[in-house]
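Customer ticket, subject: "Can you confirm the structure for P-loop containing nucleoside triphosphate hydrolase protein?"

Message body: Hello, I'm evaluating your service for our small team and ran a test protein. I'd like someone to confirm that this is what the system normally returns, since I don't have a reference to compare against.
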Amino acid sequence: MRLESVVPSIPAELVAALDHSCGIRTDTDLLFFGSSIDIIKKLPLGTVTLSDLEKFTELVAEKASVPGHRGDEILAGTGRISEKHPQATCGVKELDELVGGFGDPRVFEISGAKGSGKTALVLQIVIQCLLANADSCALWIDTSGDFSAEKTAQLVRHFDVALSGKVLERLQVSLGFNIEAVHDVLEALRISLLSSRTVEPTVQWIVIDSITPLLLPSLSAVSSQGHAMMATFMRRLRELARTFGLTIMVINGTSAAAPFNQSSAFASTIRKPALGPSFTFMTDCTLWLSKTEDMPDSEGSFSVHVAEVFRSRATISKTWCTFQIRHGVLSSTT
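Agent reply: Thanks for trying us out. I re-ran your input and got the following:
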């Protein structure tokens, strides 16, 4: 949570001074910086008293904490949101059934090695959703500058040439090369959704491609600050999903798993999702993709892939299905 969002509960002048003098921009920065005395020493003289700083720090901690909810209330609320949320499909029936569909207000982690089909899957989900729901938009946060407008346009034309232009208008792409930039994008979206009183298309899907370079540099085996930053960021995504009924998909990289990944149903899986073992518990579903082989045929060639659920709140873990990709388009292998 950015401290700017707490203004005016905290004076804007103090927020600016914390940023300029201490590099404190978020609740995580403030709560893990050190003691209030350490912060006072770095601030310009007379900025804030020690007692007021401690009071503001307690306020930030209170706002950053997760409120308690009864299980039956959460279940009832999820049901109400699900009824209003647009239906979403990836176009592969077996894969939709594997995760219980992609349309509920949940946070999905899509992980796998390079070439496993992560971006192709997420892009096809977004396009299918935009084609099926004319009053919806999608926000794609590109953290590496690799988003291809040309490939996206080709995929849209493959599904519906007539509507390709209108669909692309409802796919918003934002660049965010660091965690602060992405926080800014999400805060702008939150304010927009809160203040929206029009009948214009609204954002229903968010993609972060990829989340790995945003969080991995801050993670350390000797400090908990990076993990706290990751937990804060993921909590914000879950709050956005549940408050506004959004489906959020984060693409994650991989790291080595020795001797093999015990979350997988296959002993041949020697990679695992990046960002540590706790990250998978910060999402609602972890979907692992892998490429098995390339197959030639009369039309050229296609690749065969496996999608496996490592963990899910809605469906059974360690279940899997196969699918194929031909010219960037996913389809069933049967």
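A couple of notes from the result: The longest strand covers residues 285-297. Residues 254 and 272 are 5 Å apart (CA to CA). Feel free to reply with more questions.
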